[in-house]
Design brief:
The protein is of the alpha/beta class. The protein contains 9 helices and 14 strands.
């Protein structure tokens, strides 16, 4: 059976094997993907190797504080590049394997020359890529206005270069007015590239409001310029629809962004002077144009003045002859007009007199006819009124006769009805009833209409036509029965 090992024994075996198989130190080429510094000054890194943008190897690394304090400034001073993630380095490491923490690399030394060469190679590749894509000169081909006065500024608000730029623009000796708007961005460090691209994208939303874009920053170390050798940032500048003017404060070298920009100036102040000089050149051009216009206007005025004098002389002669001719024609026309007016007035006067005579004649005839019509209508009206009155009288007489006959019949009918009522009342009189043999029965002075309320021993009074009889009830029975006698 094979020997069994504990995990610790296995890791210890790996450690012993590595210590014998690998030299104490080796030089390794890798890219820094992560970098962290702790409070104690130690630096913890993650090193990777990529192939076609895919990670094919990864290892943890450490630079202890006493080594890190020496290597970092040495690297940055030599390369002009921050010691940060995203760069390729050549480092001397010792391979260490801990039973609990696994494999790690302890960095002992670094070769800045390798990184400088790699950065130069990357910069060259970026330039060639932009040229091969046909975009390297695109922003340069844009037309810059003669006087770019509306400027979008990409910078840091607190940067000295931005303040110098604004002072230069606002206090220019010619008093040229500029409108600027700051789109803040980080101008150095790891966040510079995405921050500047974000500022460009914000400006793009207001493209129509601006004439140009100024990317400016103050001075600094050469390492601060590495953000401007980035492909993504340079590509955005080439594609931007407004001319981009750079002034990133470095006198010696041009960054890739400088190369693809429309205009490259050394400093923010130089960028301000560039815009001011555009206004000055335009102002001087306007002055020269003004002088030229004034000169040509004066020459034209002189020529036209001479021509005007010649025309005025000819015109005066022509006008004098024209006025004389028109005056003769006017007198002749006036005489003819006067004659025509007199004749027209005479004719109209005759016509008016004829109309007046005709009017009076017609008015007299109309008065006679109107008077005759009024007399005729008056007679007709009297006849109609008489006929209407007679017709109404006949109607009234008829109604009078009808009322009289109706009243007689009504009163006769009413007298007959009263006579019948009188006979009826006479026949119903109690005295006449008693005279016909009928009697009335009273109890306590009241007429008895039924046998029901009467009781035995009640006294009743019977009225006859010739007297009364009082009696007492001894028996009581229903009509037709022989149950009892009174």
């Amino acid at each position: 059976m094979e020997q069994k090992l504990t995990l610790f024994e296995l890791n210890q075996w790996i450690k012993d094997t590595l210590s014998h198989a690998i030299p104490s130190t080796v030089w390794v080429v890798a890219e820094i993907s992560e970098l962290k510094e702790n409070r104690s000054g130690h630096c913890y890194l993650e090193l990777v190797e990529k192939k076609e943008n895919e990670i094919i190897a990864r290892a943890r690394a450490t630079i202890w504080s006493y080594t890190y304090r020496i290597l970092k400034p040495y690297f940055e001073t030599t390369t002009g590049q921050f010691f940060s993630h995203g760069i390729k380095v050549l480092v001397q490491v010792s391979v260490e394997f801990h039973a609990a923490y696994g494999l790690s690399l302890n960095i002992k030394d670094i070769d800045p020359a390798y990184t400088v060469g790699d950065m130069a190679l990357q910069r060259k590749e970026i330039i060639e890529r932009l040229q091969n894509e046909g975009v390297f000169e695109m922003n340069k081909e844009l037309d810059l206005p003669l006087v770019p006065q509306r400027i979008a500024v990409i910078s840091s608000k607190t940067a000295a270069g931005y303040q110098d730029f604004m002072d230069q623009l606002e206090n220019n000796p010619h008093g040229i007015k500029f409108y600027t708007h700051l789109f803040e961005a980080y101008m150095q460090g790891a966040d510079a590239v995405p921050s500047i691209i974000g500022a460009l994208e914000r400006i793009f939303q207001y493209e129509d409001f601006f004439d140009a874009v100024a990317i400016i920053r103050g001075g600094g170390s050469t390492s601060d310029l590495n953000s401007f050798d980035n492909y993504e940032l340079a590509f955005h500048v080439t594609q931007f629809p407004l001319p981009v003017v750079t002034g990133i404060g470095h006198e010696k070298d041009d960054s890739v962004v400088d190369m693809v920009a429309h205009t490259r100036m050394k400093t923010p102040t130089a960028v301000a002077e560039f815009f001011i000089s555009g206004g000055e050149r335009f102002y001087e051009h306007l002055i020269s144009m003004e002088d030229e216009v004034v000169k040509r206007v004066r020459e034209t005025i002189d020529v036209k003045h001479e021509q005007l004098e010649d025309v005025a002389g000819n015109l005066q002669r022509f006008v004098s002859g024209f006025i004389s001719e028109k005056n003769r024609q006017l007198i002749k026309t006036g005489s003819m007009l006067q004659h025509e007016v007199n004749r027209f007035s005479f004719n109209k006067k005759m016509e008016l007199n004829n109309l007046k005579h005709d009017f009076h004649s017609a008015l007299s005839v109309w008065n006679v006819e109107t008077k005759n019509n009024l007399h005729r209508q008056k007679r007709m009206l009297k006849r109609v009124v008489r006929e209407a009155i007679l017709k109404e009288q006949v109607g009234l007489n008829y109604l009078k006769e009808q009322v009289k006959n109706g009243s007689s019949r009504f009163f006769a009918k009413e007298r007959e009805r009263l006579h019948l009522n009188k006979n009826t009342v006479r026949l119903l009189n109690p005295e006449n009833v008693l005279n016909r043999g009928y009697t009335l029965t009273l109890k306590e002075g009241k007429i008895v209409k039924s046998a029901e309320p009467l009781q035995l021993n009640d006294e009743i009074e019977t009225l006859f036509a010739d007297g009364t009889v009082k009696s007492k009830i001894t028996k009581k029975g229903k009509h037709g029965n022989k149950e009892g006698d009174l």
